[in-house]
Each structure stands twice: as C-alpha cells, then as structure tokens.
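Hi all, a correction to my earlier message: I attached the wrong file for Branched-chain amino acid ABC transporter permease. Here's the right sequence:
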Amino acid sequence: MDIAGLSAYAVFFLSLVGIYAIMALGLNMQWGMTGQFNIGIAGFFAVGAYTTAILTTAPAEGRVGGFDLPFGVGLVGSVIACIPVAWLVARITARLRTDYLAIATIGIAEIIRLFFVNESWLSNGTRGIPGIEKPFGLGNNGYLLIIAAFVAVTWLLVEIARRSPWGRVLRAIRDNEPATAAAGKDIARFRRQAFVTGSCLMALGGGLYAHFVGFVSPEAFRPLYGTFLVWVMLIAGGSGNNLGAMLGALVVWLIWSSTEMIAGLVPTALIGSESAFRVFLIGILLQIILVSRPQGLLPEKRPPMPGEKR
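and the right structure:
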C-alpha cells in the first residue's frame, strides 16, 4: 500500500474512532457515572443516523423526508428526535436495575431497528437511504476535522458535567443509591437526565456516522457494531473516566481493525466464520483487561471537591 492509501486509511480509521468515542462518552455518562446498564446503544445510534439522513438528503419518491436541509440542522434534529425516545425508554425502565435493565434496553433497541426495517415509507426499508452528503463539500480529510471538533467539545461538556454538583449526585447514586435517596435527592429524575443525555450523545454519533459513510441501512445498527463494541471500548478504557472512554475507542477499534487481518491469515476450516472469530478475539482482549486491569487502562479518578486542593 502506498503513502496515499495509508493516509486515506488513517483518515477513515480516525473518523470512526471519533464517532465511537462520542458514543462511548455517552455510555460513560449512563454506566460509568450513574450505573445504568444500557445495552440499547444501537437503537439511539440508529435514531440519530436516520433522522439526519431524512432531514438532509434530497427529495426521493416512496419515503418521507428528502428535505435537503443543512448539515447542522440534521445533527440538531438527530439529538432532538432522540430526546422523547430516550425519555420514554427511561420512564418505561425506571424501576429496572442491572440485568433487567440490560434485557429491556437491548429489546427496545431491536424494536427500533426492526421499525426502520419495516416502515419503508419513512426509512426506505432494507434498501436504506443513500446520498447523505458531507457538509460544505468536504472530503474525508476535512470531515475528520469536524468529527475531531465534536469529540473535543463533547469531552469538554461531559467533563464539566462530571465535575459539577450534578455529576457528584450521579456518582452518589451509582455508589450508594439508598443513602443518596435519604439525602433528599430525586433518584428517578437524576437517572432519567443521565439516561437521556447519554442517549443524545449516541444519537449525535449516529448523525456524524451517516454523513461520514453517506448511506444508512438497518444492517449498520446490529448489536455487534452499535452496542457490543462501544461497551468493550468503555470497559477497556476505564469506566467512569472520560479520557479512558476515548482511549478505549482508539485501542479497541485498532484491535478490531487488526483482527480482520489476523482472521484472514487463519484457514477458514479452523475458524468457520471470520466475523465470529473477530468477536472471539475481542472477547479474549476484554477478558485479559478485566483480569489484569479491572478498572481499565485509565481508572476513574474522583474529581476534586469545591475548594479542595488537587
């Protein structure tokens, strides 16, 4: 591969890392800060991607949409569309914890995906929505800068939230919910706020993804790519640490990309399915990290209290 090919691949690789980093930051707000076991990431990812696709593509026959609106309007729309969906999911699952919440959210995510499969009037069904252009006529290099800017702003905002009194309440709920309730905090309200905020970041990642690949279809939002990898990124990077979430996105996507080459070197007779073998390798990586560094590559550090010296 020549220098131009390597450069193009590096841009493609880093763009996906940035998109996954935003989703990992959203999951960190739900799980790392509040302890909400959300396995429905792919659903909110799909809501964001389809919303911006419907709003920003040119008119097309056979489906709603084609409003040909600007890039920024599409991204704002993807976040706004996610708010009622996430709020409804949070209300439905308000009394669920741990495994029960995980089962409910993965089921809801699959319902959302199948909705886009079957409602062709809105999503064009399995044929998907093509023609999603990058903003300002940019190529992949320029769009990478836009993704990087969104990653930086997202990290800054969630880090401010983590260090704020609101973030301290979320961590208190995660660590000792009965004591937090006894202190007079509205547990359900704070959990809903964290769930909706994190889900909106996942939808934002979906909107950026749609403009990056230029095409969305239900196949892109299966649990493997939309949920499983995001969880591995957060756990590997460091749950509760925003920098760890972004580092996990980089490391895990690098390893995931490398597994394609490794799987290609192993005889098919030995591994059966290449995709299953790649998941197997990522699973081994996760087990190694859980055993050797159970808190991740960058463990959580408690932010200083107001007036406290570092």
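Sorry for the mix-up. The longest helix spans residues 3-32.
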